[in-house]
Amino acid sequence: MTNHVTVWAPNAKKAQTLLDGHLLDMTREGQWWVLPQPVEDGQRYQFVLDGGDPLPDPRSRYQPDGVHGPSQMYLPREPAPWKGMDLKGRVLYEMHIGTFTEQGTFAAAIDHLDDLVELGVEAVEVMPVAQIPGSRGWGYDGVDLYATQNTYGGPADFQQFIDAAHSRGLGVILDVVYNHVGPEGNYLANFGPYFNHRHPTPWGDAVNFDGDDNRPVRQFVIDNAHQWLVDYGLDGLRLDAVHALVDESETHILAELSTRVAEWSAQIGRPLALIAESDLNQPTMVTAVGTTDGARGMTMQWDDDIHHALHAFFTGETDGYYADFGSAETLAKAFTKVFVHDGGWSSFREQNWGAPVDVNSSHYNAASFVSFIQDHDQVGNRAIGDRLGHNGADPNLQAAAAALYLLGPFTPMIFMGEEWAASTPFPFFSDLGPDLGPMVTTGRRQEFTKMGWQGDIPDPQSEKTFRSAQLNWAERSDPTHAHMLQWYRQLLEIRSSFPRRNASSLGSTTMEVLSPDAVAMKRPGVTVIASRSETPVTVTGLPAQPSLVRGHQQCDGTAVTLTCPGCVVVVE
Length: 572
Description:
By secondary structure, this protein is an alpha/beta fold. The protein contains 14 helices and 29 strands.
C-alpha cells in the first residue's frame, strides 16, 4: 500500500521530505506542499522546511519513537462490519488504557472486554490516545492529534481494540482534545498559524479557529474527527473542555463539527455521537444547530452538577466547587432540573452561572446528560487521587450513590474499577522532559499546599505514581470488592429491563426529600430510596416489596425504614 504525503505550510519558501535518508523536494500547491513520490505503508519520513530541522508530520498517524521522532506511514484498514449504536441512554465506561491493565496496552485491554459486557456496560469511553511526550500520562497533553500512542500499541492495535469491542456489542468512544495542544513536542507553529495570539489561554495561545488563515486549522480538527469516526470506525468522540474553545466566528467550530458529523453518519449509515465536556451549564450545547442562537448540536454533555450533588451529599465535602452542594434539596434539583447552577449564583465562581433546561424540549432529554460519581477529573484532580469510598468511608455510601445514578434518567458513566470499589487511586501522572517535568512536580505541590492539604503529594513525574493507578483485577475476588461488583451487576440488570429510552423526558423523574439525610427518586418502573445517616427514616405506600437492598433496614409490607449510612432500597 502507498500514500502521498502533503503538508500545510503557507509561509515556507521550500519544503522537503526526508525519506530513507534522502531529501526529496515537494511541490507547492497553493498553501500546501505535496510529495510527488508515494510513501509506502510502514516507511518513516519527516518534513524539512526552508532547510531547518526535520519535523514530524502534523497529521502523522504513528510516531513509533515518540513526539520528537520521525513519522511512520500508516494506512488504516477497513473497520470490521458494525451496525453502530445510539449512545444516548447507554451505560458508558471510562477507561485509561495505560492503567486499565498492568500491561497498559490495547491488546491487554481486549482481554477484559468480556468482563465489561458481563457487568452490563454498553460502550467504552477511552481517554485520549493521541501521542504524548514520554511513555505515560493522562493524554491531555497530546501533540500529534492524528497519531495513536506508541506505548499502547499504536494505530493497528487500536483498530483491533475497536473491532474487538464491536464484536462483543460494545460501542467505542474516544476522548479528543481540540482546545489546546501540549507544550512538549508541539511543532505545529513551525508549519503555520495553528494558534491565535489574540486569545491567550491557560495553555498558551488558543487554537486558531477564528484568526487569519483559520480555515485549514478548522479543517485540521474536522479531518481528525473524520479519521477516528469513519476511517477507524468509532461510535463517538468525547470533546475535552469545550468551554475552553475560543471561537468568535459566525459559525462556532462545534456547530460546524456537529453538522459535518451528521453528514458522515448519513453517508455511512450508522449513528455517530459527539459528547461535550462543558462547564457552561448551557442547554444550547445539546440543542440542534440552527434552531436557536448559540446552539452547538452536541449529542450529549457531561453534567458535573449531578456528580457534585451526589458526591457532596454522601461525603459531606462542601469545600471549593462543592460549596453550593451537599443538601438533599440540591441533590433533588440536580436529578430533576439537570443543572444546579441554572442561571443563579455560583459562590465558587462568584457570579451567576448557567441557564435552565426546558423540560419540554424536543432537542434534548434526560439521556442527553451524562451522570457519574467518579471520572478521571473528579478523582485525579484530588491531591492523592483518592476515590469515593477510600480513606475508611463506608462502602454503602458509594453503593447508595451508584443506585441513584445508575437507575436515574440520565446516561450513566462508570469510571474504571469503580464497579468493584477498586483500592487503587487515580492520581495525576506525566512523563515530561527535564525542562517541563520539574515544573509540573513543583506546581502540583504548590497548588494543594495553597488549598491547605497537609499530607504528601504524589510526584506526577514518578513512575511509582503511575503504577499506583493501575487496576488490580485480582482484588475483585476479595469479598468486599466482590460484594460491590455484584451490587453494580444487579443495578445494571435492573436498568437493562427498562425499555430503551424509557421515561427519558426531563419531567419523568421526581425526587422527594424525606429528611435532611434521605431522598426517594422515582421514575416509571423504579423507586430508589437512599440515606446517608443512621437516623431512621420510614417510607410507606411503596408499590411493591423492595427488589434490591443494601445496608440495615426494616421492611414491613409496602413500608421500609432505613437505619444506616448508605442504606438503599430499590423497588421495581
